[in-house]
Design goal:
The complex is a heterodimer of chains A (796) and B (527). Helices cover 72% and strands 1% of the residues of chain A. With 796 residues, chain A is an all-alpha fold. Chain B is mainly alpha-helical. The chains are: A mainly alpha (796), B mainly alpha (527).
């Protein structure tokens, strides 16, 4: 395994996990400055993947693998190609600056070390996700990103909003993950292929399956929840409760793109079908519009950015969903552009918040003098986001318009949606980059000044990267865009990327229209915001509220259901248990037609009839007994009668035992009765009497019927014969029953002796141990399961 | 009497070849636990030495079970008969990979509990039998996993039931007695049904040896009254396993005893019931399983969903965990309902996972109570700050019980969902996945309230108000080591599932392809 070859992918993916382990110690040692050495890890990973770029751009792909669970056909394997390399570069590259930024942002926070750890765990998980080849391996990393995202969103855990957002994100993305798992397992079951590389080489291997629609829906379930597509978009803005480094890294640049990644990854095998080109553009388009419109409504810088992230994800899904080659080129360019500018803008928003003490855009202004570097970075990033030259955002927009406008099908609709979305995106970009910095200086909660280098390194680097990618458009095209587009389309594709449009075409005109529309809307931003606020207030309900209602509904249903089935009343439990027993006897006997054939009149002698009559009258006496004591004694009558029957039919040992047991149980029960503080008689209302009587009768009839049916069969005597043959000759005993007890089945007897001893110990424990304190009041409160507590905690 | 009366050909009635030394491992778990239990009983008054005796003997038990599993993996199914009587006439112990694995897992849990008990059980609890009960409980548990005779299985169930009753009442508090009465009565009904069914089974087949039963049902089919007996068995063990709707005893009792007792119960008791179901319907009466598969599937789904729904309804941590135990039973039953090799392997794997994770969760709950002073989610809070170690442990266990990677619960879930999808039981797959999601919510709520929230219910936003014990005072190594042991296994199985996967597959293959089992009992005459 060479250190620089593709085999080292293992090391690259596992390195962040190692960094996670040492981060707390490093932070304890170095404080916030631990960010510098820690950032070396993602930087090294970045360089490693950058080293692979020339090979990958040349069309090579690698699938390093080791066996993991061979018994179940799971390997720990990666797939390094254009698409995964671009993602790995974004994750490690942006990750480097996020680590630095986190060093400055959470300086002095008591849990900064833990924060670094979580970030590194996420980074490793995310790398594993985009590089994963084996479907199970990929899925595991997929879920790990949800788990780490949960921990990071809830980092500020003392606030209820953080906690709620964390669990909400976990439930939505985790739930989607389960759909994805089902989808992957179905793919494996249908095709027998367990890894992405082989699957992608399989052409129509999935599209030709009858179950293709189900597979697609399951995969989309995973992708749409992760990438916050409408109607699952609500968790993402709520996730802004996380510290800003998290928002910049997970919830804009990387994790939320996992869904888009998956769609692009699987496009060659799942895409380009009627279902794909219908569902994806529709949901993507709705998400784009909803995202931008809701962004306009916000005044919180982070929320404005969050909603435009939702919108951008919608745009990417929409473009990927068209399956048009040019649109996908646009999507890939936009993906790159978005990660750079959105990461930078989030960090800018965080820096403003950190330095000025607020991120409410209406309470900010005039910071340009105090924070010139941040302002510059914000402008560069915002220009890219607005789709203006000379930034990669501009190129992306050119390509996507070129892709959507010229295509066949519903291209006007797609283009129109993209245009409105892009215009509104420009509005938000301008609002975020200009409002806090321009205009008269506004008094902010903290006295604002430029942040430390840890804070501005990230925004500056990322926004400059957006510029560089555009200026070196050709290289960007050769090294990044072409390989990725080839991956997404499944065929080698050359994409020529130019900064300067070659001719005045539809794309350029659409760009101009977008910019013009955006500027107009920006000037009317306050009116627009008010209008949106009114509209939303009029609707009054959204999926976010719906989520709460669903959870509350589940919890309250759980409460009432559980109180119903586990009410705490022993008589109900017993009745139900015997009801089930009766059914377990009667139903199969009837369904299999195994009731005994007509019962022949037994050929009894008169005294045998007599004994039977005694047994029956004993039972009758139990039923009519006025007091419990009489009932107990009457039950003894029946028992003695049975003992006599045993004797008459040649089982003296059994009979003797039965006499003993009956005598002892009557005596003991009677004694216990005298000590118990019970009413002497057991009065039950009529209805329970009938119900319980019927159930008892059912159990009795069932058991008797089954027993009689079995006695109709011929009995296999081989064991009896064996015991008869060898009891005396080998075991040296004439009483076969005794020999069975002490020899043939002496092992059972041994166990039963243990039972007797244990029973004695139990009695001892019951009698002798007394509770030390009279804590009865407290116990009554918590006692038994009657006191099933009402759950009022319906809300998360 | 002439000596010639006794001169018979012994080989007609007995196994004549000597038992290989390694095969004695089959019986070692019983010897070790009974001996240890007796010694603990003799040291009744000496409450300091009891834990030491118990830990020594349970360590031996773990080693014996590990050796036994290694031997089974090496040599295949092993059989040993009491008194050398030829099967099916004597009582056979027949050990396959499933039995040995479950015995090993259980013994590890028991060892952990013995250590945890040092702190959790006071001297009066020891004097009245915590350690003897624990060791004899293991006699019952191991006996049940290892025996090859269905009546003998009944005996071990009785041992298990009575010793668990003893553990349940230790302390004699009112809530405990309320729980113990419900536990005992409902379980005795189940045990009695088991006994009745066994008597009737003997009446039909004339044998009690499991391999013999399997052989006979394979040739006779289940059309006659045997089917009704099979349903009786299903009911009896479904009650033991706490399947819906006959699981009243579990939520009524698991929250009442000392937490270490609840931890052992949560790990072991229901799993013995599941084991019996797998054994009987996998090996003994596979045709009855075919007939009942839809019923079992409905029961399985109802059990997993009602279980997790019950968990969502709770604010008491112990009750919540009890319902999660039930929910897990549903997943194992789903494996039985499908009955294919991979599905059965999933059920076995799930059982091992559930034993480890549920015990560890109850122990963790005990520590949470120690730190936060309550089991109520309304009163707990601030534990994240109080003990990051505890938080990490709980979080990993919570993800494990939800079936999230990379922990032990993930793999059996994948196996079961995969098996369901391959067999066209989409609804079973859906139910398992939905249960996983709801479980995440249930344990997520615990995490959010007990760990992340700053204090009891109603704590102001951003405030840390919980007054918490210092972690050191909650217990030293005796508390943390058992949790670390179980948690370590949960993580290792999650990261390196290969061994468990192989073992589970071996166990399942014995059930689906019983030839090796039959040959081990009857020799090569079986085809």
């Amino acid at each position: 395994m060479s250190i620089t070859g593709p085999e080292a992918t293992f090391a690259a993916v596992l390195a962040p996990f190692a960094a996670a382990a040492i981060a707390p110690f490093a932070t304890r040692l170095l404080g916030a400055n631990a960010a510098w050495p820690l950032a070396v890890v993602p930087a090294a990973i970045f360089l490693f993947f950058a080293g692979l770029v020339p090979d990958v751009a040349g069309g090579a792909s690698f699938t390093p693998a080791v066996d993991w669970v061979p018994a179940y056909g799971v390997s720990f394997s990666f797939y390094v190609d254009g698409l995964s390399t671009l993602f790995a570069l974004l994750i490690s590259g942006i990750g480097t600056f996020i680590i630095l930024y986190a060093g400055g942002y959470l300086k002095g926070h008591p849990h900064q070390g833990r924060f670094f750890s979580f970030l590194f765990l996420f980074m490793g998980a995310m790398l594993g996700l985009v590089l994963g080849n084996d479907l199970i391996t990929l899925f595991i990393f997929w879920e790990l990103t949800s788990i780490t995202s949960f921990l990071l969103i809830g980092f500020d855990h003392l606030r209820a909003a953080s906690r709620r957002a964390a669990l909400q994100a976990l439930v939505v993305t985790g739930g989607g993950g389960l759909l994805l798992l089902a989808g992957f397992l179905m793919i494996i079951a249908l095709t027998g292929v367990t890894d992405m590389a082989t699957l992608l080489a399989g052409g129509d291997i999935l599209r030709e399956q009858a179950l293709y629609p189900l597979v697609l829906l399951l995969v989309l379930g995973g992708a749409f929840t992760k990438s916050a597509q409408f109607p699952f978009h609500f968790w993402l803005p709520n996730a802004m409760e996380a510290p800003t480094p998290v928002s910049a890294f997970l919830h804009s640049a990387t994790m939320v793109k996992a869904g888009v990644y998956l769609l692009m990854r699987m496009h060659p095998v799942l895409g380009d079908t009627a279902m794909w080109t219908t569902i994806l553009p529709i949901f993507g388009g709705i998400t784009l519009l909803v995202g931008t419109l809701l962004a306009v409504r916000q005044t919180d810088l982070k929320l404005m950015l969050a909603y435009t992230t939702v919108a951008s994800l919608g745009l990417l899904v929409m473009l990927t969903g068209t399956s048009w080659e040019k649109a996908i080129e646009g999507a890939v360019l936009y993906l790159l552009a978005h990660s750079l500018f959105k990461g930078a803008l989030f960090m800018v928003a965080g820096t403003i918040d950190h330095e000025a003490g607020t991120r409410d855009v209406t309470k900010l202004g005039g910071l340009r003098g105090a924070m010139p570097i941040t302002f510059a970075a914000a402008c560069l990033a915002a220009l890219s986001m607005s789709g203006l030259p000379p930034f990669v955002g501009f190129i992306a927009k050119e390509y996507l318009y070129a892709g959507t406008w010229g295509a066949t099908g519903a291209h006007q609709a797609v283009t129109a949606v993209a245009l409105i979305g892009n215009a509104l995106m420009l509005v938000i970009a301008a609002a975020v980059a200009l409002k806090p910095f321009l205009g008269p200086k506004v008094e902010t909660p903290k006295h604002a000044h430029e942040g430390p280098v840890l804070l501005f390194a990230g925004p500056v680097a990322l926004s400059l990267a957006g510029l560089a990618a555009a200026v070196m458009a050709h290289a960007t095209g050769v090294y990044f865009i072409s390989p990725v587009v080839s991956s997404v389309l499944g065929t080698a594709t050359e994409v020529e990327v130019h900064l300067i449009p070659g001719y005045i075409g539809a794309a350029l005109i659409l760009s101009m229209v977008t910019v013009a529309l955006g500027i107009v809307l920006y000037l009317k931003l306050d009116a627009l915001r008010a209008a949106m606020a009114r509209t939303l207030a009029a609707i009054g309900w959204g999926p976010d509220k719906g989520f709460d209602q669903v959870i509350a509904g589940i919890v309250s249903f759980s409460g009432s259901f559980t109180r119903l089935v586990q009410g705490g009343r022993m008589d109900v439990y017993m009745t139900l248990t015997f009801l089930v027993t009766a059914l377990a006897l009667l139903v199969p006997l009837t369904l299999t037609g195994n009731w005994p054939s007509a019962v022949p009149m037994p050929d009894f002698r008169f005294y045998e009839w007599g004994i039977l009559a005694i047994a029956a009258s004993g039972l009758f006496a139990v039923l009519v007994a006025k007091t419990r004591l009489t009932a107990i004694v009457s039950l003894g009558i029946q028992g003695f009668a049975v003992a006599v029957i045993f004797m008459l039919f040649g089982a003296p040992d059994l009979s003797f035992t039965q006499f003993m047991v009956e005598t002892l149980s009557v005596v003991i029960l009677a004694l216990v009765m005298t000590r118990l503080n019970l009413r002497p008689s057991d009065h039950r209302p009529m209805l329970p009497r009938i119900v319980q009587g019927t159930i008892a009768l059912g159990v009795g009839v069932g058991l008797a019927g089954l027993l009689m049916r079995i006695t109709e069969l011929s009995f296999d005597r081989s064991l009896s014969d064996f015991f008869e043959a060898y009891s005396r000759t080998i075991a040296h005993g004439r009483n076969i029953v005794n020999v069975i007890l002490v020899d043939f089945r002496g092992f059972d007897t041994f166990g039963e002796i243990a039972v007797v001893m244990l029973a004695g110990l139990c009695v001892l424990a019951l009698i002798r141990v007394r509770p030390k304190h009279a804590r009865e009041e407290a116990l009554d409160r918590a006692a038994g399961d009657e006191a099933l507590q009402k759950s009022g905690e319906a809300r998360l | 009497m002439a000596a010639s009366d006794y001169s018979v050909d012994l080989s007609q009635a007995m196994r004549m070849d000597a038992v290989p030394p390694g095969d004695w491992l089959m019986i070692a778990p019983l010897v070790i636990t009974i001996l240890g239990g007796a010694l603990c009983l003799m040291a009744r008054k000496n409450t300091d030495s009891q834990p030491k005796i118990a830990i020594i003997f349970l360590t031996l038990l773990v080693l014996a079970c590990a050796g036994l599993l290694a031997r089974v993996l090496d040599k295949g199914v092993l059989t040993m008969v009491a008194g050398n009587w030829l099967p099916p006439f004597g009582i056979a112990f027949t050990v396959d990979a499933m039995g040995a694995t479950l015995a090993l897992t259980s013994s590890i849990v028991a060892l952990a509990a013995a250590v945890f008990g040092i702190n959790d059980i006071d001297s009066s609890g020891r004097r009245y039998g915590f350690y003897p009960f624990l060791l004899l409980l293991m006699t019952g548990v191991c006996g049940a996993f290892l025996t090859g005779d269905i009546f003998n299985l009944y005996v071990w169930f009785e041992v298990l039931l009575i010793s668990s009753f003893g553990l349940l009442v230790l302390g004699n508090e009112r809530a405990q007695l309320d729980g113990a009465v419900k536990y005992a009565l409902l379980n005795i009904i189940a045990t009695t049904l088991f006994l009745i069914a066994t008597g009737l089974l003997y009446g039909i087949l004339g044998t009690l040896n499991m391999a013999d039963i399997a052989r006979k049902t394979a040739s006779s089919g289940v059309d006659g009254p045997l089917m009704t007996v099979a349903v009786l068995y299903f009911l009896a063990f479904a009650m033991k396993a706490a399947a819906f709707p006959v699981n009243f005893w579990l939520p009524a009792s698991y929250h009442t005893p000392r937490i270490v007792v609840a931890a052992v119960f949560a790990g072991l008791l229901t799993k013995v019931g599941v084991y019996a179901l797998l054994r009987i319907f996998g090996l003994l009466m596979p045709e009855a399983r075919l007939v009942l598969s839809d019923l079992i599937a409905v029961v399985a789904i109802a059990t997993m969903l009602t279980g997790v729904i019950g968990a969502l309804a709770q604010t008491d941590l112990r009750r919540l965990l009890g319902y999660l135990v039930i929910s897990g039973i549903g997943s194992m039953l789903a494996g039985l309902a499908m009955g294919t090799g991979p599905a059965m392997a999933g059920a076995i794997f799930y059982a091992v996972h559930s034993i480890l994770v549920m015990t560890a969760l109850y122990m963790t709950a005990g520590v949470m109570r120690g730190l936060g002073g309550s089991y109520s989610l309304r009163e707990l809070g601030g534990l994240y700050r109080a003990s990051p170690l505890l938080a990490a442990a709980f979080l990993m266990l919570a993800f494990a019980v939800s079936g999230l990677p990379p922990f032990s619960g993930f793999w059996p879930k994948v196996l079961l969902v995969d098996a369901a999808l391959r067999d066209g039981h989409g609804w079973i797959a859906g139910a398992i996945l939905l249960t996983g999601l709801l479980t995440t919510i249930a344990v997520g709520r615990v995490w959010i309230y007990a760990f992340w929230r700053g204090g009891a219910e109603g704590t102001a936003d951003g405030q840390l108000t919980a007054s918490l014990a210092v972690p050191r005072e909650v217990g030293g190594a005796a508390v943390w080591m058992p949790i670390a042991l179980l948690l370590g296994l949960v993580v290792i199985i999650g990261l390196q599932p290969e061994f468990m996967m192989q073992v589970a597959q071996r166990g399942a293959s014995t059930l689906v392809e019983p030839l090796g089992y039959l040959r081990s009992v009857f020799g090569d005459i079986v085809q």
